[in-house]
Design a protein that fits this description.
2 copies of one chain form a homodimer.
Chain A: H1 11-25, H2 30-37, H3 41-44, H4 51-64, H5 71-75, H6 78-94, H7 100-104, H8 111-126, H9 131-152, H10 167-174, H11 181-203
Helix pairs in contact in A: 1-4, 4-8, 6-8, 6-9, 8-9, 9-11
Chain lengths: 206, 206
């Protein structure tokens, strides 16, 4: 029996297929990817160096859709820069929620990701934070945004109606809008609160 | 050939095995779980109703290790309650980072999880937030904590040294401590900032 013809491969086709596997089952393996693409595993390595590079290519793709607004740097409005980046970052990552723990488990390597982190570092430095605080602020924002991206991908009903909810929790659940408004409102509330706290922290610096 | 003897099964044994599969590959299936436990798939259903219940049992297990301090409610110190819960919640979830997107993709059903959400709802209500704001505050804290749990499970080197980092980002990276101190410091910074923002929001309410 002749082998089936090898498909034309590219790094892009490989990343597409791996991302579909992650969306479905939370992960991918190189042999599983080869099987899905109907190629020999060795063929994959003509285009990518392995699993880590594929994950970095996914990060690059998610980051590429984030518009880095250099405007904030010029006007010195660090708050506007941080808020705009956080909003775009959340929307981009919410498209593939199951990719998130793979990204956080790998070192950020890709140049394109540093576009966003550089813009955040510039903004927080302009806001008066010390270098150590800049990294803390980036990390705290990162954590909030990734958690919010997971929340945006959450089901319509995040909390079941249950007699176990106490009175304050029942009142809170009754006041909730429906998805995605609930998630959007909670994100904007959290972003406003986080930025208010960062402003206070920055102005209380010696 | 005689079939191998059926292992003694329990919901606990099933959850243990599913959690191991998630730690390794990010997910589990009922047939895969049966194979791992060397039982027939139908045997699993004598103990659990299916995948959704297994995920809820994992949530219950993670939540069970969080000490709900009723003390804060009595003294009215909502900030202390929120901070203590956030710290315990992060540590508990960081043990199984790849479980996080499965938990956020499923409706919270388990009674034990409502212990923490009830305590948060009581604390934020005591802090003067309206019911809608209480849900936003819980969601924002949830997002920050889950993102921080992923960060605690991140590799030693979160950002590679690269010429693409600009001057503020290079300075920030140079000031970073090593893991887990880096992640702990960033979490405490973020928690302080988030709580400062919540305090300001609560006191500015009409």
């Amino acid at each position: 029996m002749p082998r089936p013809p090898q498909r034309l491969l590219s790094a892009e086709i490989i990343v597409d297929a791996a991302l579909k596997m992650i969306d479905i089952s939370g992960d991918f393996t190189m042999p599983g990817l080869a099987e899905r693409l109907n190629v020999r595993p060795s063929s994959l390595y003509n285009h990518v160096s392995g699993r880590a590079e594929i994950i970095e290519l996914m990060r690059a793709r998610a980051m590429a859709s984030i518009r880095i607004d250099e405007h904030g740097e010029e006007t010195g409005d660090w708050v506007a820069t941080v808020a705009a980046l956080a909003r775009e970052y959340r929307l981009s990552y919410s498209k593939h929620p199951r990719l998130i723990p793979l990204l956080t488990a790998h070192t950020v390597q890709t140049d394109i990701a540093f576009g966003m982190y550089n813009a955040l570092a510039t903004a927080f430095t302009a806001g008066g934070f010390s270098p150590a605080e800049v990294l803390h602020a980036i990390t705290a924002l990162d954590s909030f945004v990734l958690g919010s991206a997971l929340d945006l991908a959450a089901p319509q009903e995040v909390w079941a109606s249950t007699p176990r909810a106490n009175e304050p929790m029942r009142a809170a659940l009754a006041a909730a809008g429906s998805a995605p408004t609930r998630a959007d409102d909670a994100f904007e509330f959290g972003l406003r609160v986080l930025i208010a706290g960062l402003r206070a922290e920055s102005s209380s610096a010696p």
